[in-house]
Structures are given as structure tokens and as C-alpha cells.
Design a protein that fits this description.
- By secondary structure, this protein is mostly helical.
- It has one domain.
- It is about 90% helix and about 0% strand.
- α1 runs antiparallel to α4, α2 packs antiparallel against α3 and α2 runs parallel beside α4.
- The relative contact order is 0.19.
């Protein structure tokens, strides 16, 4: 549920970019949205996978502590991947024709939103939803 919520966040941020920069909605929008969805879910899965590994390794720690540790362990990888992608897409935006710029600018915004949602939001939502589920079971 938290991964889907983060994907919705990323798509809404991209739609906001389309609106703010007055980029026409056409077939490149669909390609940009699908690209960012794939990019963001991949980054989120990597963070979640590390949290699952930490739950097995550190079973005495709470889920929230393991989630925090998982985010801390993957943040460098996420930042490096995002910066590499931003450099590449930035060069495409600067050097490319105007038809590519309408694709590259939303991708730049989406990659940044994907980094934020994968690192800052996804595990927090997971901890929040897991806590609510645990409280429902106790009642």
C-alpha cells in the first residue's frame, strides 16, 4: 500500500510539472509517466528489500528501527543513481531538440520526486500502515 501511495505521489508531482511549465499533454506524457513509475518502484523495492533483510538479521529490533536502518543503508545508492540519471537527462534537455525537452523536463521532475518518495516517504508509510494493522489485531 505504501509503494502505491508513493507512486501516486510521483505521478501527481509530474502532472503538477506539466501544469506549471505548460507542457502540452500528448503521447510523450504517457511515456514520461510510465518511465517514472518504473524508476520509482524500482528504487522503492530496493529500500523495502533492505528492510526485509534487516528484519531477518536484527529480529530483536523493532520494525521502525529496521526500516530506518534500511533507508540509511540505501540512501547513498539512491542518491548516486538519481544524480547519474539527472546528469544524463539534464544533458538531453540542454542539448536536445524541443520535442525531446517536453519529455526530459517532466522526467527530471519525476526522478527527483521518485527519490524523495522512495527514501523519505515509502518506509514511513510502511511503518505507519504496519502499526495500524498491528493495533487492529490487538483489539
Amino acid at each position: 500500500m505504501s509503494a502505491v501511495l508513493c507512486l501516486v505521489h510521483d505521478v501527481l508531482i509530474m502532472f503538477a510539472a506539466y501544469t506549471i511549465f505548460q507542457i502540452p499533454l500528448d503521447s510523450t506524457m504517457i511515456a514520461a509517466v510510465l518511465t517514472i513509475l518504473g524508476y520509482s518502484i524500482n528504487a522503492t523495492i530496493i529500500v523495502f528489500d533492505r528492510v526485509r533483510e534487516n528484519n531477518k538479521l536484527y529480529s530483536k529490533s523493532t520494525f521502525a528501527e529496521n526500516a530506518n536502518l534500511g533507508v540509511n543503508q540505501t540512501i547513498t545508492r539512491s542518491l548516486n543513481t538519481t544524480l547519474t540519471t539527472l546528469f544524463t537527462i539534464g544533458m538531453i534537455y540542454i542539448l536536445g531538440p524541443s520535442s525531446i525537452k517536453t519529455f526530459a523536463l517532466p522526467i527530471i521532475v519525476g526522478v527527483i520526486a521518485g527519490l524523495f518518495s522512495s527514501v523519505c516517504l515509502s518506509c514511513n508509510f510502511w511503518v505507519l500502515f504496519k502499526g495500524k494493522k498491528a493495533n487492529e489485531v490487538r483489539k
